[in-house]
Amino acid sequence: FQPKLLAGRRVLITAGPTFEPIDPVRGITNLSSGKMGFAIARAAREAGAEVLLVAGPVHLPTPRGVRRVDVRTAREMHDAVLAAAPRHGVFVATAAVADWRPATLSEHKIKKGGRKLAPSFELTENPDILAEVARLAPPAAPGAPGRPYCVGFAAESHDLLHHAREKLARKGVPLIVGNLGPATFGRDDNALLLVDAQGHRALPQADKLTLARALVAEIAQRLADGEGG
Ligand code: C5P
C-alpha cells in the first residue's frame, strides 16, 4: 500500500538542460539528462499529485499521468514556469539551466571561410527561475494563488554543503538538494544531501526513482508540518 502523500497537491518541476542558440545550427548546452527531474515527476504523480513537467531538450518518455511542456532556452523555461507557478503548491527546480546565453543570435550559420580569427561571443546572464519563483508573494489564504513551496538542486564539484547553504540564502528557498554522487549526469543512480536552515541529512546511494520517492515523501512531510502554502 502506497499512501497518496500528495493527493490534492499541484507540483511543478523543471528538468533537463537548456539550449542557448548561437546560430541556426549551434548552441550552448550541458550534459544534464533530465533523469532526476523525470523521476521526481513520476514519484509525485504516484503520490497523487497533479504534475506539470517543464522539460528542456531531453530524450526521455513522459511519465504516465504527467503533463509536459517542452522548452528549449532558459527564457522559454522561465516564461512557462512563471506562468504556471502561482497555481502550484510545490516547485522543484532540477533543471540545469544555462547561466548565460549568447547576447545576440546570428540569423545565418557562422561561416569559417575567409576568417582570419576565430569568432568570439558575448554572453549575457539568463534569468534565475528558482530565485524569481521564490520571490513571489505567498498565497493570501490556503489554496489561493501564490508562491509554491520551493525546492532547489545543487550540482557542485566540491564543497557541496557549503555551496548548498549559500544557495539556500541566495535563492531564498527552504530546501536545497545536493547531488552527492560523483558525476551524476546521465547516470541511473545518485546520492542526495538534503540541506535546510536546521541542518542536513543524506539520502544514500540508490537509483534515481528510489531517491525521487524519498524526496517526495520528505516534501509531503514538510507540507503536512505546515511549511509552504
Ligand atoms: O547555483 P545555481 O544558480 O546553478 O543553482 C541551481 C538551482 O537553481 C537549481 O535548482 C536550478 O534548477 C535552479 N536555477 C534556475 N534558473 C537558473 C539557474 C539555476 O532555476 N537560471
TrEMBL record:
Keywords: Decarboxylase, Flavoprotein, FMN, Ligase, Lyase, Magnesium, Metal-binding, Multifunctional enzyme. Its cofactor is FMN; Mg(2+). Pathway: Cofactor biosynthesis; coenzyme A biosynthesis; CoA from (R)-pantothenate: step 3/5; Cofactor biosynthesis; coenzyme A biosynthesis; CoA from (R)-pantothenate: step 2/5. Residues 6-221 form the DNA/pantothenate metabolism flavoprotein C-terminal domain. It catalyses: (R)-4'-phosphopantothenate + L-cysteine + CTP = N-[(R)-4-phosphopantothenoyl]-L-cysteine + CMP + diphosphate + H(+); N-[(R)-4-phosphopantothenoyl]-L-cysteine + H(+) = (R)-4'-phosphopantetheine + CO2. One of its GO terms (cellular component) is phosphopantothenoylcysteine decarboxylase complex. One of its GO terms (molecular function) is phosphopantothenate--cysteine ligase activity. Binds 1 FMN per subunit. One of its GO terms (biological process) is coenzyme A biosynthetic process. Signal peptide: none annotated. It comes from the Bacteria. Catalyzes two steps in the biosynthesis of coenzyme A. In the first step cysteine is conjugated to 4'-phosphopantothenate to form 4-phosphopantothenoylcysteine, in the latter compound is decarboxylated to form 4'-phosphopantotheine. In the N-terminal section; belongs to the HFCD (homo-oligomeric flavin containing Cys decarboxylase) superfamily. This is Coenzyme A biosynthesis bifunctional protein CoaBC. It comes from Piscinibacter sakaiensis.
